[in-house]
C-alpha cells in the first residue's frame, strides 16, 4: 500500500513537499498519527529554517469535492486507500471522538418506494430494500384470496368470509415466516367463481345446460315421452290415449 503525503499549506511554494511512502504491512493496522510523524521528520530534515511541529499538524483527504479531516487515532487501513493523496495541514490533530462531536454523521435517508420491494406472500404488507435484508416478522396466508359473488376470503381460510373490504383486510394471516420478493411463475393473485367450481370438481354448482339440450327437452316428442312416463307411473293404460 502506497500513499502520497502532500504539504502545500504555505504561500511559499518552495516550502511545498510531496512524500511517497510505501507502508509496511504492520503500519496498516496502526494510526494515521504515525504517518504524520514520519512526514514531519522527513520534512524537517531538509527544512531546518522552517521546522514543523507534529503536535500542531493534522491530516486531511479529499472527500465529496471537499476535505475531510482525519483523526490522530484513525486506523490507516480503515480510512485510506492505496495510492491516495493525503494532505498535511496546520492545526493540531483531534481524536475520532472529538471529530464525531464536531461533525455528527447524518443518518442515511430512508429508501424511496422505487428502492423497496413488496413481500410476495399473500396478505403480507411488509416492504423492504430490494435484495434484503428480509423481515422475519411475516404474517401471511398460504393460498390466494377469492372473490366469489359478494364474498371475499382467503382460500386457505374458507370459514373466515367478509363482505366488505375493511373486514376482509382485518382477517389475520394463518402462517408466519420470513418475507420474500420471489414470486412463483404459476402463482395466481386471486381466484374467482370459475376457480371455485373447478376446485369442487364441478359439483359445487349445477352445470349450465346447452341450447341444444334445452330445445330437445322442449320438443313435442319429448313432451309426449314425459306424458307417457307420468301416466305409466299412475298405472293408466296410455294405449287408450295414444292411438
Question: How would you describe this structure in keywords?
Answer:
alpha+beta; Ubiquitin-like (UB roll); 3 domains; five-stranded mixed beta sheet; three-stranded mixed beta sheet; 8 helices; 12 strands; rod-shaped
- In total, the number of strands is 12
Rg calc: 42 Å
> How far from one another are the termini?
117 Å
Strands of the widest sheet, in order across it, are 2-1-5-3-4
| Category by helix and strand content | alpha+beta
CATH fourth-tier homologous superfamily of the largest domain: Phosphatidylinositol 3-kinase Catalytic Subunit, Chain A, domain 1
* CATH topology (level 3) name of the largest domain: Ubiquitin-like (UB roll)
Helix content: 25-40%
Q: Which residues sit in consecutive blocks of at least 5 with pLDDT less than 50?
A: none
Strand content: 15-25%
Bulk shape: rod-shaped
Biggest sheet: strands, sense, closure?
5 strands, mixed
Taken in chain order, the helices and strands follow as: EEHHEEHEHEEEEEHEEHHH
Supply the number of helical segments: 8
CATH class of the largest domain: Alpha Beta
What's the CATH architecture name of the largest domain?
A: Roll
Q: Tell me the domain tally.
A: 3
> Average pLDDT across residues?
81
What do these coordinates show?
This protein has 243 residues and is an alpha+beta fold. It folds into 3 domains: 101 residues, Phosphatidylinositol 3-kinase Catalytic Subunit, Chain A, domain 1 (Ubiquitin-like (UB roll), Roll), CATH 3.10.20.90; 87 residues, btk motif of tyrosine-protein kinase itk; 30 residues, no CATH class. Strands 2-1-5-3-4 form a 5-stranded mixed sheet, covered by helices on one side. β6 and β7 form a beta hairpin. The chain is rod-shaped, with a radius of gyration of 42 Å.
